[in-house]
Structure formats: structure tokens, C-alpha cells
Prior knowledge:
Strands 1, 2, 3, 4, 5, 6, 7 and 8 form an eight-stranded mixed β-sheet that branches. The chain is an alpha/beta fold. It has helices spanning about 10-25, 25-30, 45-50, 75-95, 105-120, 125-160, 165-195, 260-270, 285-295, 310-315, 320-325, 330-340, 350-395, and strands at about 40, 55-65, 215, 225-235, 240-245, 275-280, 300, 345.
Amino acid sequence: MSTQDSTSNLERDIFCRLTRNRYVGQRALFAAFEPAESIRRGDAIGSRWLQSQQHTHYVVASCVDSNIHYPTDSSLLADGIRVLSRGLARIARECKSGAVKVVNHARAVKYRLLEISRAAKSLTPVNQRRMKKSYQQLVALAGQVVHQTGKVMKHWHKGKLPVVGSWLSVTTQMARLAHFLPLVGKVIQQTQQRVFRGNTRVEGKIVSLFESHSQVIRKGKAHKPNEFGRLVRVDEVENGIVSGYQVLEGNPDDTGSFLPALEQHLSCFGRAPEMATADRGFFSARNEREAEKLGVKKVAIPARGHLSHKRAQHQKQRWFRRALRWRAGIERTMSHLKHPFSMTRARYKGDRGFQRYVGWSIITKNLFSIARWQELKKLEPARKNNEQGDADLRPAPQATR
């Protein structure tokens, strides 16, 4: 059974590894992509090829989903009960008989989940009372398991747990319980806040016990109002090369991502781009001023809201409209990243695995862009010769009397 990490044997991962190994050695590539704090570089090879151009810089932010099920309070409580009970059962097998008594709550949890799902289909007062009653029973079961887990861990730290089997196995399970126990406690608290007190804006909300770095992202999409993953900022330059990216914390405003993107471009290329463009979500007067101070000659970010006459005339200039048409091309890049290169959902585990998955998707896409650019360069002399031949065969215009 294959694990979904950088050594995965899935067909998609094998294809990506063969592609990136075809162009550059892994050790050199890792050195080129070593992160500077939380900001990672895009493709060092493509950056060197673009040193002589650096005309336009595009910025966009998009959500990449984590590999989790749709989070509900009931399903998160069920996950917590299952994980903690499984860890206690494995510890009980390595201890003296009867030292750790574990109750299997699987059937009770299943019935509570069914009751909650049926009651949630209707908003009548009767069904709402039924749902709250089922939630009370589910929270009580989770509280019992959490209490027992804390008691077993306390005995372990005091040396009072009679282990007769593998100490290594017990130590491993204790480490897992220490990781999941505070997360399950947070899930119980946020369930009580939402279901019994009506507070839906709990700070530090947990949406997955297994991918605890995942966050709720709201981008204003009518078909998908809530997304669960991380927000990723992508920077693109000419020839479809992604020059930088950053996995952001939380759901920040896009205006705060524009200047870090320009600073990343400066550190990567050594000078500011001649033109920088992004969608209206990145607009602010401060961003425009700071971009010009960094050396950007033309900043094409459409303003939001009602435009003054001066601003409207500014945005009607030919170079501004042309830059916006070029900016629309990054949507094609995001589509390629998310579909052919599987960046829609990050399937590696943990926060570091999430960032590694995004990075490999971008690297592989860049290698394809470089290969396409090389092939076009090879075909350019033949194209010019064909154009010259067509011009020679074209009849000369007749002189008019």
C-alpha cells in the first residue's frame, strides 16, 4: 500500500517525478528551492532564462483544498472518539490484563450520527430539540473518552502503567494520544459553542483532526462559499514561468500579498519588473505607491468602487487595458496547476507535506513551460524561413497608371 508523499508510487506522482528528473537533478533542484522563511522561490532555471526580460509580473491568490472530508461537528467528534479509543485499545493490549479497560463506542456513535443527520434535514423546533439531545449524548461520549485518555497518560508519566508488552509500541501510542487529545478538546468546545450557545465564530476553529493546519477559506464563490485548505499566492512572469509562491496563514485580505510578491521578485531577479498587474482585490493606494518606490514603472491594478474622472481616464490608457488582458492569462496558469498538475487538492500529509505538494506541482508545471519554450525556439528559424519563402513567391504588385 503506497503512502501519498514524495516517494508515492501513484501513477500521477511517478509521472511528476519522471518529468522533473528529466530536466534537472533532485539535489540541485532542492537547493534552488530552499525556502527563505515562509516564502519559497519558484523555478531557478526559468528565473535565469528570464533575466533579460522581466517585463511583466502577475499576482493571484487561490485556495488549495486539503485532503479531508467535509467537516461537521458531529463527524469531528466521531473522528476524535475513534482515534482516542483505538490508541487506548492498542495500549491495553501491551499492558497487564484489566489495567486499561476500553469501551467500544462505535455503535453508539453511529446511531448518534444518524439521528443528527435526520434531525438536521428539517428546521422545525421538534427536530432542533432532537438534534441538540443527540449532540449532548455525543459530546458526553467524547468527554468520557477524553477523560479516560488523560487518566491513562497521567499514569504513564508517573510510571504507574503496568506494561508487560512492547514499550516502544506504548510510547508510540502515547505520542499519538498527546497529539490528538488537545485537538479533540477543542472540537468539544467549538461544538458546545455552536450547537448550544449559537456562536459560529469560534477562534482557532478545527476543521480536521488529521490535517489540523487546514483553515476555512471564503472567497465569495456562489457555488462554493466555504473551502477547507490553505490560501496560496502565485506569481507569474513571461512564458508561463511561476517565479514564486507562498502558502498563506488564515484567510487574509489580498491587498497584503501584493508587496511581498514584488519583494520576492526583487530577491529572485535582482530588479523590479517593468509592469506589475493583479486583479482588483489587490488594489490599494499604498500598494501602488510602494510598488513605484520599488522601481515598477507601470502598476496595473483596477480600483474598486466608484471611480473618479481622473482614475477612470488612467484605467482607460492603452497600456493599462493591455496589462489587464495579460493578467487574465494567469487564470489559465491556475487552471493548468489545478487540473493537469493536480493542485486542486494537496494529498501529502501535514503542513510540510502540503507545502511540498504545492511546490512540486509548481516545479513540474515550470518544467513543462520551459520545455515548450525550448521547442518554440527550435521551430522559430524554420518559421522565419517559411515566411521569407512565402514573401519571395508572392507576386509583385502591378503598377497602376
